[in-house]
Structure to design on (421 residues):
């Protein structure tokens, strides 16, 4: 038996077992897509996210092609190692210029098990008759983080998933090109290749138009007095403003939940660039620790403590948190925030006026030097402040006991402050 025939036996064996595994790959692809779609929407990126497990006909075509062109398979393990997209997710971006930001989001959300692949890629010395560059995209090979999964879902953390990021136009062209070129029946004619190349040129021209459309939208959003139409507008403005404020290169994690911020700004009737600008002046540069949207929300809450309750309702509605479905938890969250607002108000009365028109956000480092509390109490206060941030911005779901303990801690610090006045 020659090597190719043996390779085809391996292919046939793999194709026999794959139908028993397809549901597994379909489910893990759906999980990755859901997680990614929510994060993209929250950060203000327009995209169409789809997922699929590799279909049996497409898998068969690919295996036959690769067995012939790349060298015959020698084992089932070799097939698994070679076919990286049994579970696949596609991110079709409206604006190609956001590809880098989306890439940073992907690397934060998932574990990477292999290097990133950027297209087009050519081997040294490769020649082509194509006038245009061909497929333009970035592929990420990832796995779900085990720590993000429930005990019953841990098996999905072992699955390899390929995420393909390209423009909506490029994804459409690649589908046509793939179905025509990667078929085992025979090679296309020179005329067919030429027409595919022409279509690729139209797609690349279309991507330039999409980039111009994005810049036109950014210019519209920046117009004075014009309200943000949605959280995508707000995200575009924040990204532009971050560059003028000399902040670090901002990505999705630095931007935060812009959808929640937009809903809150609408609630308090602050929906224009002029309304947001004063709060941007309070932003510190450590966006990986405190995303920009969260810092603005904190400034808005500090300006008026009565906004806490409305903000909690908005966050629960937009971000899908479930505190209100748990009466005991919701009651304790309310008690904690009530005690926290009282402590924050007391600290603010003691804080020096820094002369800023907006922002009564506490500068903890400056206050630490005022000798208001013991070093041990300041340390405890910082822990409670981090707990408060997790509650307010929906980063954790504490238990009733944790909330009661935190409330008691805040009350003790407030009492210590009052005794020292």
């Amino acid at each position: 038996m020659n090597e190719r025939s043996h390779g085809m036996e391996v292919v046939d064996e793999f194709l026999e077992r794959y139908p028993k595994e397809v549901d597994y790959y379909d489910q893990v692809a759906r999980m990755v897509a859901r997680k990614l779609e929510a994060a993209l929407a929250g950060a203000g990126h327009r995209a169409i996210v789809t997922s699929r497990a590799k279909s049996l006909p497409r898998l068969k075509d690919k295996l036959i092609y690769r067995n012939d062109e790349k060298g015959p398979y020698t084992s089932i393990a070799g097939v698994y190692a070679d076919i990286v997209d049994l579970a696949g997710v596609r991110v079709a971006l409206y604006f190609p210029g956001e590809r880098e930001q989306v890439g940073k989001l992907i690397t934060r959300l998932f574990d990477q098990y292999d290097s990133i692949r950027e297209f087009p890629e050519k081997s040294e010395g490769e020649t082509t008759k194509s006038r245009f560059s061909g497929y333009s995209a970035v592929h990420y090979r990832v796995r779900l983080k085990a720590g993000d999964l429930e005990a019953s879902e841990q098996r999905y953390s072992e699955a390899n998933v390929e995420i393909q990021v390209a423009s909506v136009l490029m994804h459409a062209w690649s589908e046509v090109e793939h179905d025509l070129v990667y078929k085992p029946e025979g090679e296309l004619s020179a005329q067919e290749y030429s027409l595919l190349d022409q279509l690729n040129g139209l797609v690349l021209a279309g991507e330039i138009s999409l980039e111009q459309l994005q810049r036109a939208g950014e210019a519209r959003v920046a117009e004075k007095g014009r309200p943000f139409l949605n959280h995508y507008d707000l995200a575009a403005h924040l990204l532009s403003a971050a560059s003028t404020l000399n902040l670090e290169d901002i990505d999705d994690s630095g931007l935060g939940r812009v959808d929640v911020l937009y809903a809150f700004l609408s609630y308090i009737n602050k929906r224009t660039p002029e309304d947001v600008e004063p709060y941007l002046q309070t932003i510190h540069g450590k966006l990986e620790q405190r995303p920009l949207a969260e810092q603005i929300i904190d400034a808005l809450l500090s300006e008026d403590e009565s906004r806490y309750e409305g903000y909690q309702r908005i966050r629960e509605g937009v971000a899908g948190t479930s505190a209100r479905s748990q009466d005991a938890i919701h009651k304790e969250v309310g008690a904690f925030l009530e005690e926290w607002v009282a402590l924050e108000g007391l600290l603010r009365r003691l804080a020096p006026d820094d002369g800023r028109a907006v922002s009564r956000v506490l500068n903890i480092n400056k206050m630490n030097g005022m000798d208001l509390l013991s070093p041990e109490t300041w340390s405890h206060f910082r822990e409670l402040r981090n707990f408060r941030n997790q509650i307010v911005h929906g980063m954790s779901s504490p238990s009733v006991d944790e909330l009661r303990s935190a409330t008691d801690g805040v009350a003790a610090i407030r009492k210590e402050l009052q005794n020292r006045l």
Q: What stands out?
A: DSSP finds 17 helices and six strands in the chain.
